[in-house]
User: Fold this.
Amino acid sequence: EAQVTQNPRYLITVTGKKLTVTCSQNMNHEYMSWYRQDPGLGLRQIYYSMNVEVTDKGDVPEGYKVSRKEKRNFPLILESPSPNQTSLYFCASRPNTGELFFGEGSRLTVL
Amino acid sequence: EDQVTQSPEALRLQEGESSSLNCSYTVSGLRGLFWYRQDPGKGPEFLFTLYSAGEEKEKERLKATLTKKESFLHITAPKPEDSATYLCAVQASGTASKLTFGTGTRLQVTL
Assistant:
């Protein structure tokens, strides 16, 4: 089944404790992206990757890092999480053109 | 800066009561306008892509239309299973890097 898989789905952590949210897609898509979704603000892009080893900032990249060492994986790294990073995170992928396929989401709470 | 505004914020319909959701946008050249459906606790699910003014697409009880400034998602004779948040997003010409999302319309269809 074609899918985008994120882990963990739910996480509660404390300020400053590094964490990684993994994302994997099995559709051989070149493009991958991370979004965060907050009430009243909609989905906002954090980082994106057009292909392996090519990443760039989206609209809200502060406090986040990404890497794209393999085509299928695009982890999101929070080096020192803060409470304002409490959010619902979505990973998405697509071929060169066309619609985005989203993962199921990762709900992160930073205390 | 690209902007997407969706209205109404929330809509409650009785089963069989048709209505329309609005998506107004400003973008420096439209590459595509996308409609997604999002169920609680899930990632957005692709519905339609529209590329040029005058274009229409249909899927079951849903029909999406596009003008130069807005898009409508028409819901004909809705059923309770159509209850969800409907998201609109635009992709600007000259960029393959991101979608700009609206904040969505939360639709509830009651018996």
About this structure: Chain A has a mean pLDDT of 95. Chain A has no helices and eleven strands. Residues 54 and 68 of chain A are 7 Å apart (CA to CA).
